[in-house]
Amino acid sequence: MQDKANKKGKRSRTEAVGIFIVMTALAGCITLAAGWAAEGRLLNFGRGLALLSVGIMQPEGGVQVLSERLERIPAQGSMEQTGEPSDLPYTPIGGVLTSGELASSTIIPSGLVPPEAGDGGKIIELMVGVGSNFVQGVAIKNASSRTIDIAAQLKIKPDIKIKNSSDPQVLILHTHTTEAYMTYYAGYYNHRDSSFSKDDTRSVVAAGEAISAQLRAANIGVIHNVTLHDSPKYTGAYVRSENTIKKILKQYPTISVVIDIHRDAMNKSKTEKYKPTVTINGRKAAQIMIITSVGHSSTYPHPDWAENLRLSLRLQSSLHTQYYGIVRPLYLVDSRYNQHLSHGSMLIEVGTDANTVSEAAYSGEILGKTLAQVLNKLK
After folding, report:
1. Which pLDDT score is estimated for 310?
2. Dihedral-angle region of residue 378 (phi above 0 means left; psi in -120 to 50 means alpha; beta otherwise)
3. Is the pTM of this model over 0.85?
4. pLDDT on residue 108
5. What is the pLDDT of residues 190-199, one digit of tens each?
6. Can you list the alpha helix ranges (DSSP code H) found in the chain?
7. Whole-angstrom Cα distance, residue 219 to residue 94?
8. Which CATH number fits domain 90-376: 3.40.1210.10, 3.40.630.40, 1.10.3210.10, 3.40.50.300?
9. Phi and psi of 317, rounded to 5°?
């Protein structure tokens, strides 16, 4: 009994010492924190202090758990966010802080399949047609007022400056950041399966990050901006994303390529959704559609539309010839979609709200790898 009392007394004294150390650290470091905040070092200070406290007060393993959680907070120097902060880790690339990569889409689980509630609808999986009348691997769906000579445009090198440099050269962002995917496939969806989510692991952010990972692997500097442009207000999202693009291009003039990643929505009826899917190397992937603006008017000037088109044509051709079925026909429109802001702008739809996030991320990997090939040939 005396031994137990002694142990209890020692444990109480240890806990008291731990509390004293934490309180002393808090009191002594608050003054430092005020000075560090101006230098952007406050986040690292807070991380260290939290780990100190958990190391003293928590059981073995507590430090590791908290460290993993803290590493998912955007680090000092990350791009300013106007919406909720990203829940993805950040790693420095050539002095630029970009969101951390999803090593593989296989880490995104399909999720548990809930029972059919009867308050949703059906999901129809199919492979959408890849087009016809191909010219060097390119089929188009022309909804614009312009006639395009595909072969002639493919002969002209895009006006894009890609260099062997760690500086950022590609910007990936999302005008409709909350566009989301399913987490499972069972041939149906329930009412609670929202088509929009602020969860980065369910939204187009996951597809964008998979693209970013492949570009980084190819030593192409990329900034993946995950600002919420469509929440809390959907209307005006393109104006807000335009402001984001302008700000980043001004800060990083080395960026030549700007890609706005979305997801589509295809419905057969009010309760039936299409899921455009193709199997690539034994895995399901969400079909992709590249949208390029070829319009130009006094109201919405876009005189350099052909520069964007030349890059889109090369990417379209490479995707189709290397991964048959992955890409739907190149969609040409008059609307600008902010593509007047650079000579390497594209809007890309990755799947629909009926595809799973795993399929979208896998397509992102394919897209990123192919885009890296195209860009490296332009060096």
Report:
1. 97
2. alpha
3. no
4. 40
5. 999 999 999 9
6. 2-38, 42-57, 62-70, 150-154, 204-217, 237-251, 305-322, 357-376
7. 10
8. 3.40.630.40
9. -65, -45
